[in-house]
Amino acid sequence: MNAFSPPPRLLMGPGPSNVAPEVLAALARPTIGHLDPGFIKLMELIKHQLRLAFRTENRVTFPLSAPASLAMEMALVTLLERGDTAIIAQNGVFGGRMAEIAKRAGAEVRLVSCEWGKPVDPEAVRAAIRDTRNAKLLAFVHAETSTGARSDAATLCGLAREAGMLSVVDTVTGLGGIPVFVDEWQADAVYSGTQKCLSAPPGLAPITFSEAAVAAAESRKTPIQSWFLDLTLMLGYWDGEGGRSYHHTAPVNALYGLNESLSRLLAEGLETAWARHRTAHEHLAERLEALGFAFVVDREHRLPQLNAVWVPEGVEDAPARRRLLEEFGIEIGGGLGPLAGRIWRIGLMGETCRMENVEHLADAIGTILPSAKRAG
Amino acid sequence: MNAFSPPPRLLMGPGPSNVAPEVLAALARPTIGHLDPGFIKLMELIKHQLRLAFRTENRVTFPLSAPASLAMEMALVTLLERGDTAIIAQNGVFGGRMAEIAKRAGAEVRLVSCEWGKPVDPEAVRAAIRDTRNAKLLAFVHAETSTGARSDAATLCGLAREAGMLSVVDTVTGLGGIPVFVDEWQADAVYSGTQKCLSAPPGLAPITFSEAAVAAAESRKTPIQSWFLDLTLMLGYWDGEGGRSYHHTAPVNALYGLNESLSRLLAEGLETAWARHRTAHEHLAERLEALGFAFVVDREHRLPQLNAVWVPEGVEDAPARRRLLEEFGIEIGGGLGPLAGRIWRIGLMGETCRMENVEHLADAIGTILPSAKRAG
Known about the structure:
The structure is a homodimer. In chain A, 42% of the residues lie in helices and 15% in strands. The first copy, chain A, is α/β, with parallel strands linked by helices. Chain A folds into two domains: 10-15 and 270-375, Alpha-Beta Complex (Aspartate Aminotransferase, domain 1), CATH 3.90.1150.10; 22-265, Aspartate Aminotransferase, domain 2. The longest helix of chain A has 21 residues, at 270-290. The N and C termini of chain A lie far apart (50 Å). At the A-B interface, helix 1, helix 2, helix 3, helix 4 and helix 10 of A face helix 1, helix 2, helix 3, helix 4 and helix 10 of B.
């Protein structure tokens, strides 16, 4: 059987983003044991790097050995017990997923429905908090990957705190691309993914819990429904004082890659990386607007790393994206849920976020647009 | 920050096992999108390879994007609803973990406690089935990694089937090292890991469900407690007829590695791989017995790939293993649970399972044993 040879791709969709050769090379280092003293040093280093990236001093900060969807589930099932009430803001696919997870965990969900493509509305959240008795937490998506909208995490976490509630923040697409300030926000559970602005391959999910969240997990009346996601058990491995105990076998090689990608991000500097995303986004917006595209999200609430634009009239979504892939080797994303077929999602995440990629994509889109549009 | 450089290790513990250079190289191929047509072809190929490895024609056969502990959880939470009864055999750590997961899912657990180091006792299971009304499934560990005991999966699955129950089989350490015959056993949910006899890095978990198991999942009265593990949603990605829908972002590079490791195993041939494990085990047993070691498990029930031996009198567990690691670069495993400090677990899994590794380990152990033992 011939070895699989991936086609050459420029990854400009909603993730995965391009992975640097140094990170790919790190993946291929020899596997060692997940309890090897050498590996435990690496674990400590990765925890340290993640604290820097999340801008937090949270002791409990580590990479979950699974995709970010499971980190979402971990945050919610750790903090919610059967019968608890959660206020969950939805302004896209991922807020809806949060609500679904909370319901399956037996929580009552008070859904705050916001318009897709807009940030979560703090006034609507405030009203929901006022009208809901004994809600335990507020959950929302900071960087909504399905629409490209950025919500005001500081304000929303503040509303939760004032009401004595915990906060859960999804910043899967945020971390590394825009400011994330876990401690300044006083957020209680925040998670991300590796395949967006961190530019490591998909498969791991950085997550961090405040001491209040850890205390809530430790004082539950009922066990966490998932053995795998039980924070108190998992910390025996990721945070064992005086020795690590076996919980599951950590994905050693994937963690080599994450370590390398975090080293690159921190060497560049978070502020520099944020500025790089902003600048590339502005240039992409100029080029796309010149081609007649309109953005889904208002300028001030846009995620620079996730550019959602309306598919122009006269352009067929799937065939156009297929041409970009087949003729130019460029992957961009389509819409999800009610936006399927109506928008394109163009990622400028991490390694992908370079001026030459912006130019290459804009040139390619210009080529495939019907000439009427090009003239417009 | 300097790149992490793993120390040179011969991995002879309970996993991970050594990973072939070809598999490491596969990990480092450029990341592509998880919905890329090229990647979808790879998904189909991996499903095909896993069916061959599991000896099954089950349509629903795929690699879960998480460690094997989560595959255990997936098998159980898919088939159990709150209030269902499960008969779970325990003859080591992992049977106990199954029971814990089933309880957290709200099931009543009838535990069949068997002696550690022995296979699951079919008579005890038969009695439990007779005495338990309306049990929905029988779960057991085929290859108990904590003791090195192999249970009789064909007989146990047969007992479940005769009683109209579903069967859940843990063969994390089994697949690729000893015969696994999912269809012949008529097992309903069977899962494994990548870091044992498949010799891919840890992080993925091959899993397969019979049509009866899929039907049970589809006819549940309540939703599966976990959104991430909901088989019916996950199949939209892994098995979507007429197009794949987004569920989570698959760990693309880890799947490159699994594909390569499965290609190697299937090129060697399963029977040849099983024989290789048997032969290496026999040689290891000879060498260790000559050094005065006694095996935990009777000859006929031993897993060739996981050799549990009693730590000889006069030998301190942790310092001796540390010497093997530091002076010889060899990792072996200690005991878990009640066997901690009392046994060593020596893995001969996948790539590690080579005669020269057996010799190297036996020589090293001979060197570090106190001279009294060496003479004995």
